[in-house]
Amino acid sequence: MDLDVLNMFVIAGGTLAIPILAFVASFLLWPSALIRIYYWYWRRALGMQVRYANYDDYQFCYSYRGRPGYRPSILMLHGFSAHKDMWLSIVKFLPKNLHLVCVDMPGHEGTTRSALDDYSISGQAKRIHQFVECIKLNRKPFHLVGTSMGGNVAGVYAAQYPEDICSLTLICPAGLPSTTDSKFIKQLRELQESERIDRIPLIPSTPEEMADMLKLCSYVRFKVPQQILQGLVDVRIPHNDFYRKLFLEIAGEKSRHSLHENMSKIKAPTQVIWGKQDQVLDVSGASVLASAIPDCHMYILENCGHSVVVERPRKTANLILEFLALLHSMDNKKKQA
User: Which residues cross the membrane (predicted)?
Assistant: First the structure.
């Protein structure tokens, strides 16, 4: 083989080896960095842009895609200890011409965290209203989506600021009493009795606890490598003290049943989506909402747990789109009548 050609192959092989070795090193030594890069890449691939909005000295971090148009904008509120990027799995299946906004909830990720802030559900709803006014999202009524803690906040928001929204999607929301205790609620009771409430199952601090949390939240059993589990824990550990404070706040008397206390005030057409095998918040909550909200559409997903957004993203996206299309069709019929 010609020496120049041989040298070319050596150089090419070395060039390829560098990123491969960097990837392997990141995976083994800095898995948390790899997770951040993963979300950054996914946002770029889906066309989601990150922006900041300020209300006085308070900063909100959010991502968005598209512009407001004839169809309602969609605002998405994530759950406890998550962040705006949890919605990317659903964004993937939504039309690119829809105006989507995913915000970091108060104290999470890029949004301001302050020891003086009110992290009750009503306090968070007020903060989200400030965000909505900051970016002028309520120039026209929008569709509001919330899951888990974010579902609790979304329901209270719909009750407190009815003029802002045209419709609502609640995905296995918190804030409801249940006749049947979920596995998570039973675990909490056991921890309270043993005075080990600091060991909250949704706040893992080891890879083993992270694996247990994933099993608790998902019906689908994902095979997650040990290094990725470690990376997920490493990302969360600096925030665990805040998560404990937040959990005790939203699980306390003031917020525990906030959605239940406000659901009769919800007037917007509402869609409820719940995983039948939810082990965090019992699926019976869906019937509670359906019986209290006049125009409520309920969907129970078989073979699905609490992490509906992760386990059934395509189905969830389609249900939201079908719901919005139904409302649009009904609105047109009313105008023609």
Answer: 6-39
Give residue 294's pLDDT: 92
Q: Which positions ≥6 away from 106 have C-beta within 8 Å?
A: 112, 113, 117, 119, 123, 124, 127, 128
Which pLDDT score is estimated for 11?
37
What are the pLDDT digits (tens) for 173-213? Answer: 999 998 889 999 999 888 877 766 678 999 999 999 999 99
The whole domain housing 113 covers 47-336
User: What is the edge-to-edge ordering of all strands in the sheet holding 74-77?
Assistant: 49-55, 58-65, 100-103, 74-77, 142-147, 165-171, 270-275, 296-301
Q: Is residue 12 part of a domain?
A: no
pLDDT of amino acid 337: 66
Q: What are phi and psi of 235, to 5 degrees?
A: -65, -35
Total tally of structural domains belonging to the chain: 1
In a domain, 103, yes or no: yes
Rounded to an integer, what distance in angstroms lies between the CA atom of residue 328 and that of residue 72?
A: 10
Domain membership flag for residue 59: yes
Q: 10 Å Cβ neighbour count for 166?
A: 18
* The pLDDT of residue 20 is above 50: no
- Determine, yes or no, domain membership for 11: no
Beta-strand runs (E) in 104-221 = 142-147, 165-171
CATH number, residue 113: 3.40.50.1820
CA atoms of 139 and 260, how far apart (whole Å): 28
User: Is 292 in contact with 318 (CB distance < 8 Å)?
Assistant: no
Q: Catalytic residue numbers?
A: 148, 278, 306
Torsion-angle region of 272 (φ positive above 0: left; ψ -120 to 50: alpha; else: beta):
beta
C-alpha span between 267 and 11 (Å, rounded): 66
Q: What is the mean pLDDT of residues 250-263?
A: 96
SS3 30: coil
pLDDT digits (tens, 9 = 90+) for 45-101: 999 999 999 999 999 999 999 999 999 999 999 999 999 999 999 999 999 999 999
